[in-house]
Amino acid sequence: MAEREMLLTRQGWADALLELGETNPNVVVLDADLAKSTLTCLFKDKFPNKFFDMGIAEQNMINTAGGLSLTGLIPFVSTYGVFVSGRAWEQIRTSICYGELNVKLGGAHGGISVGPDGATHQALEEIAIMRVLPKMTLLVPSDYYETKKAVLAAAKINGPVYIRFGREKVPVITNADTPFEVGKAITMKEGKDVTIVACGVMVAEALDAAEELAKEGINAEVINLHTIKPIDRDALINSVKKTGCLVTAEEHQLAGGMGSAVLEVIAQEYPVPTEMVGIKDTFGESGEPRQLMEKYGITSKEILEKSRQALKRKL
Length: 315
What we know:
Blueprint: E1 6-8, H1 9-23, E2 27-31, H2 35-38, H3 41-46, E3 51-53, H4 58-69, E4 74-80, H5 81-86, H6 89-97, E5 104-108, H7 126-131, E6 137-139, H8 144-154, E7 161-164, E8 169-171, E9 186-189, E10 194-198, H9 202-215, E11 220-224, E12 227-229, H10 233-243, E13 246-253, H11 258-269, E14 274-279, H12 289-295, H13 300-314
Parallel strand pairs: 2-3, 2-4, 4-5, 5-7, 6-7, 10-11, 10-13, 13-14
Antiparallel strand pairs: 1-8, 6-12, 9-11
Helix pairs in contact: 1-8, 4-6, 9-13, 10-11
């Protein structure tokens, strides 16, 4: 499998905020006593008058961000994904989405690859609970560069945006020049035999699986679905029409996540044999990130096996 550079997605979050601090006078940042972990401390150091540490009070932070947005500011809220999406869901729903307020939500430490922090800090449900909210744009970038681009793009959207990113270094699979457009999936590899749709760190795993499948004479198409909502229906439908079968891969609960969003499209438009890779209705535990991904079955190995199963069903 290809050797790749490893970078922090949360560094992409922080670097984009620093850029916005320089270029957009309306951008402010709020954090919930986790500025060192989310790296918004870098923004705080450079723009202390634009930074607000709200303490461990996520619900108040969301309501404050909503109020700031009504003055014309663009608040970027930052904390762990499990806290912002869980503790403050009702405030996001009613105070932000219902009023279509211009608030951007950064959900750090997404997925089981958070590692030693364990189940309480491993956000495995937030894609599901964020994507059901009307007016919400939901982004799950795959690496450092996509995270940075997602933040910069979010600043230009007038309305609520949720951006999910992780804790650990992940493989770099895009670069500064790779196109990024909200709502437009990226075909990372063209193929004709099976479609693999992935988001976040699982895109790198999908590319590794495709490399192994190629050794078996199987030509997989790999789609980076960095935008879960609004979903790129055309890219999904056109791909499965070509390949005739589908595998979804995500670092999230299978119920209600990216795979469910994809299947809602495919089931309506062009049903094909489908297999899914993700967390199977369980909480995580403490451990090293790679060990956890292997234990819970969300690596290229599972994508490879599910691709074989989907191909058998197609035949």
